[in-house]
Amino acid sequence: MRRLWLPGGLVLLVVLVALAAPLLGLPDPIRQDVARRLAGPMPGSPLGRDEFGRDVLSRLVWGARASLTVAFASAAIACVVGTLLGLLGGWFRGLGEFFAVRSMDVLLCFPPVLLALLVVTLLGPGSGTLILVLAALYLPGFVRVTWAEVLSARSHDYVEAVRALGAPTHRILLRTVLPNIAGPVLVQLSLAVASAVVLESGLSFLGLGVVPPEPSWGLMIRGARGTMAQAPLLLLWPCLALSLTILAMNLLCDALRDAADPRTAPAAPPRWVDRLLPGLLPPPRADAVLSMQGLTIEIVTPRGTIRPVEDVSLSVRAGETLAVVGESGSGKSLTALAAMGLLPPAARPVAGAAWFQGRDLLRLEEAEHRRLRGSAIAMVFQDPMSSLNPVHRIGDQVAEAIRAHQPLSARAARARAVDLLRRTGIADPDRRARAFPHELSGGMRQRVMIAMAIANRPALLIADEPTTALDVTVQAQILDLLAGLQRETGMALVFITHNLGVVAEIADRVTVLYAGQVVEEGTVAEVFGAPLHPYTAALLAAVPEGDGMAAGIPGTVPPPQDLPPGCRFAPRCPHAAPACDAPQLLAERAGRAVRCTRADELALAA
Ligand SMILES: Nc1ncnc2c1ncn2[C@@H]1O[C@H](COP(=O)(O)OP(=O)(O)OP(=O)(O)O)[C@@H](O)[C@H]1O
């Protein structure tokens, strides 16, 4: 909301000044005083007099009423009618679409001035006619934008989900589709208002709009043009008013669009102190490919700043697999995205370092990060369908990943792409390379994603729940594939998952996250054999064995905006005691760490 203050205030000021024109005690805007023709600024007329000796300030303020009424009214009519037609055409398709959308194409065929001439001939000039002409001119834009957005929105899962709930059509359109297409419609509105102010000026200038001697900014520009050599300032004032109003309108619509979309939080500013004083950063861990030390991430949300990741340290060596585990919301993905330099705009690392090949990934320039991504560091995401481009053949997508970092010809890159597809276990890779993503199964698509990730032989591969969307058999094949590729290339692998069965199968070491903090760390054998933290023990107990029922962990991970004081796991911990405070991560033995005040006591009791 804070982002609306400045542009909203500016637009409100312009509108209020225009509305308050009769109360401001300004001279009559149409009273002529030929003796003072083209007079410069003087007492009582701070902006001087025009070619008929009329007061320029008064005409500017009264002209704003005419210009803004025409602009706002025409844009509002076009927006409401156009959005409605676009919504109905895009949703119902068929005949509704034909009449709503195709009829607009006919309207688009008329040149604007011809349309204005036609309507003015029929109805006579004036503000009302101008509103009608401009509304007709802007209508097709709104219909087309809304129609295209509805077509795209209706294929999204969230729309399917409300349809599956049996919601009535008008509710789906108004409550689900409209808020999601509001951004582009608001942008179109800002363009329409801005362009209507300009067109009003243009059409009034041609004698097709506001009728003289009524003031409007367009008529002022027309008048000033004839006396440009003697009184250039006369042209400046209406042009300045026009430009500032358009700028304020555009800013307001951009701010409205951002306010309507909760995903567009303001970007967090970088911390220059971290760049200026690199000596304060924690040093890297010896022989680690990735060494993350004390990572803390802050996110600016409408309800305040949160810390979903706090003081997270982890490291992985060449050829090693580190599993990062924890329930949903524990901060696994944000930690990985920080290393990739792909944090959402509202999030920023505020402390710590992530050392990779001698560089701190948290403080790299975007250009440097882009050079590393896909070459030295690669990432595989959970949902291969949304990560692959649906309109390009998979062979071309793999080849593109290679050519983004290697100077190969298209033919050579394609041959390498086919080879990579073969290495990831895709049968008949030559034929498959010509397929589109929707023609492949989920497992095949994930293999393609892995082929793209390893295309440039990365030193570090981060896999964020790469098997969660796959069935158990395919999951096992993908795990085998990753393990095989790792043996072959010696890359370090960070495997993010909430599936402890997978961890046991693939990982050498494990880092357990809870509510944004590392609660336990060590080799898989040690941690799984004798967990030191009650959360790790509860996670392990929650893994179903054989036909037995799993013992679920009561409660849920606390959200970052509602963290309990002291130990974050205490409200769910069966061993919580009054002595439990805000524990630090303590190294128990070499390579093993735990964040629990009672860890020693509980280990002895076990
Ligand atoms: N852009 C954002 N704005 C506000 N909060 C966010 C944002 N991104 C993540 N969060 C919050 O940060 C916390 C950690 O999120 P993260 O996605 O890292 O969890 P996760 O452990 O990867 O969960 P999952 O296994 O479900 O992917 C969550 O509480 C989440 O709601």
From TrEMBL:
Keyword Phosphoprotein (UniProt): no
ABC transmembrane type-1 domain location: 64-253
Signal peptide (from-to): none
Record's bilayer topology term: Peripheral membrane protein; Multi-pass membrane protein
Main subcellular location: membrane
Tree of life domain: Bacteria
Alphabetical list of InterPro entries matching this protein: AAA+_ATPase (IPR003593), ABC_Ni/Peptide_Import (IPR050388), ABC_transporter-like_ATP-bd (IPR003439), ABC_transporter-like_CS (IPR017871), MetI-like (IPR000515), MetI-like_sf (IPR035906), Oligopep_ABC_C (IPR013563), P-loop_NTPase (IPR027417)
Location of the protein in the cell: Cell inner membrane; Cell membrane
Pfam families: ABC_tran (PF00005), BPD_transp_1 (PF00528), oligo_HPY (PF08352)
Annotated TM spans: 68-92, 113-139, 232-252
Keywords: ATP-binding, Cell membrane, Membrane, Nucleotide-binding, Transmembrane, Transmembrane helix, Transport
Domain named ABC transporter: residues: 290-540
Similarity field: Belongs to the ABC transporter superfamily.
Descriptive protein name: Peptide ABC transporter permease
UniProt organism field: Paracraurococcus ruber
